[in-house]
Design goal:
This protein has 5 helices and 5 strands. The chain has 152 residues and is α/β, with parallel strands linked by helices. Helix 1 crosses helix 2 (57-82). The protein starts with 8 loop residues before the first strand and ends in a 6-residue tail after the last strand.
Length: 152
């Protein structure tokens, strides 16, 4: 195992937030060190909108989420290209944790690097954490990056 290239394929789920961009920085740094390629993915989360009654509402929301996804993926792609790291981007649709785990398995990823929003209290109990579900179900190691504390 010594000297073996541990990481050949790294998955970076992004949602466009500052913490997911911070996670992308870690992932790209690791990819550069191990000469790995990265897969940046954005999952359009359909679950909150299931059963919307208004015709056309889902299409409008879906388009807005896809625009947000393209912007998020563009930021990660730019970061990887600046570091000279090979990157692939993909937009998925579904339940985020499930899609992330399935994508990583399909690509035979060696590592998933993602951010966490640091939900607490009732919000965490009710919604759970995408990162927690990915950690529980992923076939490979998961590096979770939390938002850095602001300097005072």
């Amino acid at each position: 195992m010594y000297g073996e290239n541990l990481y050949k394929k790294i998955v970076i789920p992004t949602d466009g937030s500052d913490v997911s961009l911070e996670a992308a920085k870690h992932a790209v740094n690791i990819a550069k060190e191990f000469d790995a390629e990265v897969y940046a993915i954005y999952v359009v989360d359909v679950s909150p909108f299931v059963g919307l009654p208004a015709e056309g509402t889902w299409e409008m929301i879906s388009e807005l989420l896809k625009e947000e996804g393209h912007e998020a993926l563009k930021k990660v792609k730019k970061l990887a290209e600046e570091w000279g790291v090979k990157i692939h981007t993909e937009m998925l649709e579904g339940v985020p944790a499930k899609e992330i785990v399935e994508f990583a398995e399909k690509k035979k990823a060696d590592l998933i690097v993602m951010g966490t929003t640091g939900k607490t209290g009732l919000e965490r109990i009710l919604l759970g954490s995408v990162a927690e579900r990915v950690i529980k179900n992923a076939h490979c190691p998961v590096l979770v990056v939390k938002k850095p504390k602001k300097e005072e």
